[in-house]
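Hey, resending since the last one bounced:
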Amino acid sequence: MAHRRLALAGLALVVAIGLTGCEPTEDQSAPAASSATTSAAPTAAATELAAAAAKLADDTARLDVSMTGLLSMTGVVDPQAQTARMTMDMGAVSDGTKAEVRKIGDDVWLKLKGPLGRLLNANDQWLHIEASELPAASSFNVLQGDDPAGTQAMVRAMTDVRRTGPRGFTGTVDLTKSPKYSPEMVRALGAKASAVPFTARTDEQGRLVELTTDLSAVVSGAGNVTTKFSDFGVAVDVIRPLPSETSELPSELRNVING
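The structure tokens again:
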């Protein structure tokens, strides 16, 4: 039972991007929300970057996400058809632990493989949950509406966006305003969560193809979170698991995923 609780805790760590175990570089309290905030007009660079992120809704693409030392994820997404197929390597849970995620409309299926899957008696079984039940901050919520990996939401939380070369951008992102980071994650990040450095890159068609947030500037021991898009127009074939291979996500896992 102790091993099972440990495995669930490890899964929660990865689902929540693993920040709660890190030490903030300064004050651990979350930034206080201002009661009277003013927003400056977006710069030309910020407007262009937002447009580049919005273009991700128009076509299929290959999606790759890496969270240093915690999670790597790769697969394909179709924002128009609301389908996605991803594989994850969750080494932070235990060595050899992997997951596969399929999404069709509002149905999401998760299959855990390796040590964690065996420990939870979930190997070779598809676990179903509705996409609407997944919080925006969940690593398993790979396609939120027409926003793959919540990238557009991240861009909307950016400040001080500047151009670096013909297709590069840099600036800071206010994670307190991003749904990809829950209040618990923001508290773990500390006072600097409102100004996390980022870099971004677009392609010749003006599409966002790479976004990196540098969490090491905020939390001691953290690394980068990098999201890449490529192979636009790739075929996205997602097979609905058979009912005989499917069960509803157990309540203990549901509680972990939903925080």
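The mean pLDDT is 79.

Sorry for the duplicate.
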